[in-house]
Amino acid sequence: MTQPRDPKNWRFVLATDLDGTFLGGTDAMRRNLYDWIEARREDVGLIFVTGRDPAFIAQMCGDGIMPWPDYVVGDVGTTIAGLENGTVTPIDALEAHIREVWGDRGDLVRQTLKGAPGLVEQDTPFRHRVSYHWDPETYDPASVAPLEEAGFDILISHGCYLDVLPGGVSKGPSLLRLLDQLGIDPERVLVAGDTLNDLSMFQTGLHGAVVGESEQGLLDATRDLPRARHCTLPGTGGIAEAIRAFQLHPEAPDEVTA
User: Is the pTM of this model over 0.90?
Assistant: First the structure.
């Protein structure tokens, strides 16, 4: 695992989704980008912005499947964390707003959606969200209407997941909160993603890589965003493509197309 880096030394920051994005592309594409990052850890920052929970991230990095990040915006933006001795550790001050908005209303969400058609609660425990497996064939949108009226945000993505989130909390706003805390110039940042739960990242106005093979809903929603590049290559190949296209680092990753 890398030691904590000083964000003031970063000339480029990659803020990336995991599934289908930083874990996407061919083996050669992943190795090309991962090696490029590891060779430049002094001036390249890495932030995971993901729906995954801290335990998953720690396991994947500990097993050497992907590089350790410097920071994590996890659980679809409801976790903001740093790294301490191989542990993803929430940053209390940055999560205060999330805790305040969410409160202790998880049980309210579960009771409201108990028995709702097309929804089965995921068995992974989350602190500031409740997430479901979503079946579009049997789902009734009316079931979440009381939650929306109560100020929750409902996010459907991947064509199979539904997240109930604190109002106004998602990947993009939480990432901006972290970048501001770290004093990072937004012009040095590239966000990357492939599904609708990444949309709020592209809506920040940061440089963006909508990687190849992205969800059609994300492609449609980002088509008119001037800084959201629709990449040709999938996953890590698309990220490298965007770094080159936006000229975000003087020694950009090589092009790997297969």
Answer: yes
